[in-house]
Design a protein that fits this description.
13 helices; Spore Coat Polysaccharide Biosynthesis Protein SpsA, Chain A; two-stranded antiparallel ribbon; 54% helix; seven-stranded mixed beta sheet; 377 residues; 14% strand; alpha/beta
């Protein structure tokens, strides 16, 4: 069979028949027409969606795991076609473009073809302004920048895939972030991706969309960032080294006037400490992501993640000893000054920075080792 068209479905009795008929009309208009089937991946509908879909000539596949991505994964797994196409079952997509989308995928020998809403006509009210002018363009730009893509609509739910290629990508997302994972994994595998101009219509009156703007938008963003740990690794290292170098200079030079500005005083040191903490948090986050083996870390990060338990113990012990000595020196100084007020704020701020960040890293590495051991168990 040439093509399987999959509709993810959850209580779509008002629209499912219209969607099926629109796809049939498009695919049957080909000369020659591709051999195809229509599969409805029913995600636990409590209305007449499954019954109506069968009556309209579709094969209904029950999918127990809930979620947009789970429904599509179930439908694609059950597909008999060489290519698999899918779209939402809400009458919003231009289903008349089904044949064009399939032909573009075949003629370009592409692993994925996308029907771009952003390059086509979007009816007034079909897409919320927040999605059209902020959400989709920002997420699309981020994916293009981080994964070297050239697409215009990362959130399009109307796509055609070569099933054999899809099966190599290891798609796991069960929610709305399925769309982002599909695109990112395709780009990471060097899959050929093409687009056609399509569009979007307004949904039927009274229909409640399954998409939740802020929740699903954040899930897309988190998944995109989780697939590029190198971004956090480089940012964390640069920010930590930069702030620590300036903090050390502040300790050695003390408050300094430069071009009429007083630098390396308390305010500067507080800001440098904040920058250092931010950098270390980014770096530790990258170490956590690298454990998932989605991307190869630098030699430094690989060595730290793989540090043996004995080295980790002595690293942690050494840092704690240095901090104990710092606190002891402050207390001793206080005693020698008859418990009078001390003016050691600048030195302490620098000491907290230069010793606190390594301690934060050591404790994080300790947590990573515990996590790895629990995972092995």
């Amino acid at each position: 069979m040439d093509l399987t068209f999959v509709f993810p479905c959850l209580n779509e009795e008002a629209t499912i028949v219209g969607c099926i008929n629109a796809v049939k009309h498009s695919l049957d208009s080909g000369s020659p027409a591709p051999s195809y089937e229509i599969v409805v991946a029913d995600n636990g509908s409590t209305d007449r969606s499954a019954e109506l879909a069968r009556a309209a000539g579709a094969r209904v596949v029950p999918v127990e795991a809930r979620g947009y991505g789970a429904a599509l994964q179930g439908g694609i797994a059950a597909a008999a076609g060489t290519y698999v196409m899918f779209a939402d079952a809400d009458l919003t997509y231009h289903y008349e473009d089904s044949l064009s989308l399939y032909r573009e995928a075949v003629s370009a020998d592409a692993d994925m073809a996308i029907a771009s809403r952003m390059r086509g006509k979007i009816e007034p009210g079909a897409m919320p302004p927040l999605h059209r002018w902020l959400g989709t363009p920002v997420l699309t730009g981020l994916i293009n920048h981080l994964f070297h893509g050239r697409i215009s609509d990362c959130n399009s739910g109307f796509r055609c895939l070569r099933k054999s290629a899809y099966e190599k990508w290891g798609i796991r997302s069960e929610g709305m972030e399925f769309a982002s994972e599909l695109l990112i994994k395709a780009l990471k595998h060097g899959a050929k991706t093409v687009e056609i101009r399509s569009g979007l219509r307004r949904g039927p009156e009274g229909r409640v969309a399954h998409l939740r703007t802020w929740r699903d938008g954040m899930r897309h963003l988190l998944f995109i960032l989780s697939e590029r740990p190198r971004l956090f690794e480089v940012t964390g290292i640069v920010l930590t080294l930069f702030s620590s170098s300036l903090q050390l200079a502040a300790i050695l030079l003390g408050p300094t006037e430069l071009a009429g500005f007083n630098i390396f005083d308390m305010h500067s040191k507080a800001l440098l400490l904040l920058a250092g903490i931010t950098g270390m948090q980014c770096y530790v986050f990258s170490c956590m992501l690298f454990l998932r083996e989605r991307e190869k870390p630098s030699r430094l990060t690989a060595a730290l993640i793989g540090i043996d338990e004995a080295s980790l113990f002595f690293l942690l012990l050494s840092i704690l000893l240095l901090e104990f000595l710092l606190v002891g020196a402050v207390v001793l100084n206080w005693v020698l000054h008859n418990f009078a007020n001390l003016d050691l704020a600048n030195v302490l701020m620098g000491g907290i920075h230069l010793l606190g960040l390594p301690l934060m890293l050591a404790i994080a590495l300790l947590g990573l080792h515990v996590y790895k051991k629990s995972g092995d168990a």
